[in-house]
Every structure is written in C-alpha cells, then in structure tokens.
Amino acid sequence: MSGPEQRRVGPVAARAQYGVPAMPRPIEIAPSVLPADFARLGDEVAALEAAGCDRIQWDVMDGQFVPNITFGPDVIASVRSHASLPFEAHLMVLTPDVMAARFIEAGCSRLIVHAEACTHLHRTLGNIRELGATAGVALNPATPPDAVGHVLDLVELVLVMTVNPGFGGQRYIAAMEPKMAVIRAMIDAAGRSNEVDLEIDGGVGPNTISGAAASGVNVFVAGSSLFSDPLGKAHAVEELRRLAGAARPA
After folding, report:
1. Annotated catalytic residue: which of 54, 62, 201, 229?
2. One of 54, 59, 197, 229 is an active-site residue; which one?
3. What are the tens digits of pLDDT across the range 102-155?
4. What 3-state DSSP class applies to 220?
5. How many CA atoms lie within 13 A of 60 on its CB side?
6. Is 197 marked active-site?
7. In the chain, how many H helices and how many E strands?
8. Which of 35, 128, 190, 194 is the most interior residue, by most CB within 10 Å?
C-alpha cells in the first residue's frame, strides 16, 4: 500500500530537511495499557515495569471526545501500588477540568489534555499545575503546531498524535514527522529544551520509531508493538530504545 501513512522520513533526511536541534532530554518508553489484559491490570503494570519501561500511560477516553470508553480514576488507583513508575493520564475527554483532581488523586503525576478539548487551554494547564501535577498538551493530527505556541511555559510535555485518537492498533501517520520537528524547534526557541519532553502516541514500533526520533521526539508511547513482541516486553522495550537512540539528533 502507499499513501501518507506509509511515507517515512529517514533519520538523515529528517535532520537535513527540518534542522532538528540536539535534544538533552532522555529517551523514554511509555507503554499504553490499552492492549493489556484488563482482568490482570495489576500484574500487567508490574510486568511493564520489570520490562524496563520509564512510565505508564493511561489512555482515558470518555465516549464523547473519542468514540470509546476506557479507564476511570478508581481503576487507575486500584493498580497504583503494583508499580513504582510514574503514571500519566492522557485525557481524551471533553471535560478535563472537571476530571483533573480525581486522576491526580488516583496517582497520576502528569495529566495530558487535548488542545482541541479545552476552551481555555492556558487556564486548564494552570489548574493542573495548581493541583500538584505536571501538565502536558496533546495535538490531534489535523491540529497545527502553533496551537501550543503560547502555553509552552506551562507544560513539561507536548504530545503529537500519530493516529487519530480513540483506538489502539492504528497505522502510524508518517506525515506528522515535519510537525514533530517544528514543535521540537519551538521548544528549543522557547529556551525549554531541558524541561519539555516531546512525545508521540500511535503506531509506534520498530519500523516507525526512527523517523520520529530523528524528528525530535524523545518519549514514545508504545502499545500493540510492545505487547505483541514474540520475544517479550523486555525485548520490545530494549529494541525501541536502541532504535530511537541511534536515530536521534546528535
């Protein structure tokens, strides 16, 4: 098959085309628990920690902002004791301000909200910080990079969606790589390269991670590729980390 989803930009080409700056932030693998066995969530989270992951991402969906329903704060709280890794909640919801406190109380140290869902994005991010968590902002594929231009001082992470949110197992949209590079350059220009991570979510695997890393991404949300690796989760994490490290700007 061909098309935008199939086009990949290699590491050398990405650096030459987009002028991606060097990145002081470490590479991190942040598994999504969507492909996990929900009947064994505690064990699954513990296994992800044992496999060498850096944090756990909870894809919170409300059936309104996206056409699916997943985890509530009580479910997350019930497995908080099964791992010492940081939890982050990716709030794919229409009312992040209403829900924020509950997810922080459940044990999430970072909340990621969608720019498209926030009428007053600056206020929402400020509220998250006041509640004691760090804040991140996510952009859907069709949302331009400048949507985060005036809130970079309030976030510790920008998430570029490389699929349309709502379901796991979708195909990586390689056409987002120039967008990643632009946002990495914006973070650098704002003087926050040491503080702000650039994350992607959607279709991350051995065949896609290099182009994203070359475009300035340092945090990778992996779901299906990690859980389906025939050699196990630890092998998947090591392979993704190795490939990202080899491709990232020097």
Report:
1. 201
2. 59
3. 999 999 999 999 999 999 999 999 999 999 999 999 999 999 999 999 999 999
4. strand
5. 28
6. no
7. 9, 8
8. 128
